[in-house]
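Lecture notes, structural biology module. Today: joint structure prediction for complexes of three components.
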Amino acid sequence: MAGDPDVAIERVASLESAGPGDIAFLSQAKYRPLLHATRAAALILPRGERDATPIPRILCDDPYVYFARVSALLNPPAAFEPGVHASAVIEAGARIAGSSHVGPGCHVGRNAELGENVCVEAGSAIGDEVRIGEGSRLYPCVVIYPRCVIGKRAIVHSGAVIGADGFGMAPHEGRWIKIPQVGRVVIGDDVEVGAGTTIDRGTLDDTVIEDGVKLDNQIQIGHNVRVGAHTAMAGCVGVAGSARIGRHCTFGGAAMVLGHLEIADDVHVSAGSLVTKSIPQAGTYTGVFPIQAGREWRRTAALLKNIDKLEARVRMLERIIAELREKE
Amino acid sequence: MAGDPDVAIERVASLESAGPGDIAFLSQAKYRPLLHATRAAALILPRGERDATPIPRILCDDPYVYFARVSALLNPPAAFEPGVHASAVIEAGARIAGSSHVGPGCHVGRNAELGENVCVEAGSAIGDEVRIGEGSRLYPCVVIYPRCVIGKRAIVHSGAVIGADGFGMAPHEGRWIKIPQVGRVVIGDDVEVGAGTTIDRGTLDDTVIEDGVKLDNQIQIGHNVRVGAHTAMAGCVGVAGSARIGRHCTFGGAAMVLGHLEIADDVHVSAGSLVTKSIPQAGTYTGVFPIQAGREWRRTAALLKNIDKLEARVRMLERIIAELREKE
Amino acid sequence: MAGDPDVAIERVASLESAGPGDIAFLSQAKYRPLLHATRAAALILPRGERDATPIPRILCDDPYVYFARVSALLNPPAAFEPGVHASAVIEAGARIAGSSHVGPGCHVGRNAELGENVCVEAGSAIGDEVRIGEGSRLYPCVVIYPRCVIGKRAIVHSGAVIGADGFGMAPHEGRWIKIPQVGRVVIGDDVEVGAGTTIDRGTLDDTVIEDGVKLDNQIQIGHNVRVGAHTAMAGCVGVAGSARIGRHCTFGGAAMVLGHLEIADDVHVSAGSLVTKSIPQAGTYTGVFPIQAGREWRRTAALLKNIDKLEARVRMLERIIAELREKE
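The predicted structure, tokenised, for the full assembly:
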């Protein structure tokens, strides 16, 4: 800490928009020039930046993590009132802890169990025999299909659908015969599921999302997938059925993983990349077509499509040169 | 059939997780080694595997199809009680068959028609004049816009939206003028629509999904599209407006089809591929950038982006060699 | 205008499906042959096509825009009854204009404000302190998180989620620490948001969608993004956090924009293209792998993956030829 220790902080803000009562942070050197103009009342800085400003400042190893904690302190999740709203419909055998909240228009199925301090917001549908661990929050219009299990302190955003049928069908005489999807989705503790994300139930065994996994919006997780602990996926990622993803992996936006693949721990897949085979080794993997202005792109695409002809021309040259050298 | 014919079966299970009372199946030779360790009470096997195990077994041509049927027998869809829940809101003129179920908090619009044995689960919204054929099931929080038609035995998963406006706008002086979308979505019999999938209504004519089409989760079908009978699409596929897709096609996850294209019957598009022109011939089509580890990828990308320069170098070599040969 | 001016028009239709009472339009020369067979009662044609048909016709500069206006006249949005449905739940302090409609099962949070002629359809959830401008329409099952602002004349389709938490987390000792997302989503006037589209709230500052922006279905907009006025995005587009998109841009289906990029005004990104760096200049940009039939594709992919080897072969040839020439 350096500077006036008595400054009062009420809010977190960005360096650019901060004003009196606000604390801001600097985590990347490129934003350093903003320090001079900021009107923040206090700052969170890397230790090396002690003398970068006279503004009251906290010095720490990882300003971003420190900021996350200050912000969590100043911005607790919205409070909720314990109790079941009069318009919610609760089926027989459902057990809802007294400290939990079930909002207007929700439906809670037979024998479902909601632990302590669970908050289910308006219009959500919780299937029969679903279990939701203590401290979890479901935003409005979430659907959990029957028998799925959600751990403690989950955050599930609106429009998420957990436990719909996996896409399993046997082809027979030109038609598709549906394979009943009788597994569940089992989600560990401290998992976040983004808006509009869908996680399908397993065919026979379960689809499993381990502790600490963070899923952004509009992600699709197929049946029987396992996502290892503390893996994070950005928006629009898709994981096809039976893929097994390691722990501590990250997936950039719209990355896709084909079915039945195995991805090791600590694998990082770049945005927009399609994983077409198993990745047994940690590391960063990428495969995206570089974007180009219209004219250049048309040329690149034409040449790429005919890369076999280019290769044939090189092969021909190699042959001619070999002949020329022989004659020497 | 071979082995003890009196064994009692209660559940289906995978070879690995099966125990007493379970029946499992073998459809791919690669899982054959699991036969020795399985604790299944009975098995479904290809005819050729009659002697592969002493476990009571059913021998058939297509174990996967046989398994699908056994599983459907043992796992019928969840039963529902006929009747309209007291909290559902039914508008004037709606006709709901006596055997059908409308769950808590649903809204059924004016003159909508639900056939026999239709089940609409909690929180779904059925627009005015919608028609839903007998035996169809809508999971919680499905939205069907006015005037759309859904055939018999449909399965529509949570978060699906059928009949929203197509994306039709005329550009005029830097702004977009909305084109009213007055067509419908018309869905045939035996169609499944996955969670979060959206099918837009037609602009003037209808968007049509023919019999037996299977759509996985988070698929987007644009206005005026026609999807031919028994075509199946995996998760995250997108089909732009006015495309016409043939019958018995399959689309891998996240495949995309541009607007106004025509795809023949029996076309198979690989996951992650973008269809940029019509495909008049049956077959398998692919176009995806191979994924590589970071270092290799950067080299590939740089060379690809400059493939025109590589081609120019080859052309130059061809010229020089031609000169050298002339001199000989 | 040409032909009988007293023909009565009741509906718009396509050239192919039009019949008595219908008006159709021709905007592209390629559909000209349909003029001869159409049974439309009237037509909207480019000025140059005055003599192309004897059918009563309106001649104008831009038939598509003219058609849009005629269609809007003949197909006004569905009317709604002012008032709050008895089953809707309205929290303390919410202000709902008398001309507005709140449908069955909706939830409107504390201190929310709905302007005149707003229509919120069944099952939607409006968070605390949300503001929605006059003339806006929310279809069933839309979720607006607390404090978000929606301008006038918005159209928001079912399943859209506006204001869910952005994907902000600080990595710390192998886990993710959530960064509270305390900004809002602020949407201008005349914006359309498609079914299943998600727009995340900002971390500290706001996510901003400017006037006249049109978003198709299943689009994902990350936190702190700004989308410039009158930009249009087709289905399945994704924009990662903190990207700034210019005005009057268009994005083809499934185009993706990485985080923190800046895209100039009047940039057009093709369907399926991944924008990996900022685009400071107007123009059309593309990057997609051309689709090919199975056999050709396998060859292309193999050569592409080994393009560095091809380049090495060309380099080797260049070296040999240089030697050969020196010897001459």
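Point to remember: The first helix of chain B runs from residue 63 to 74.
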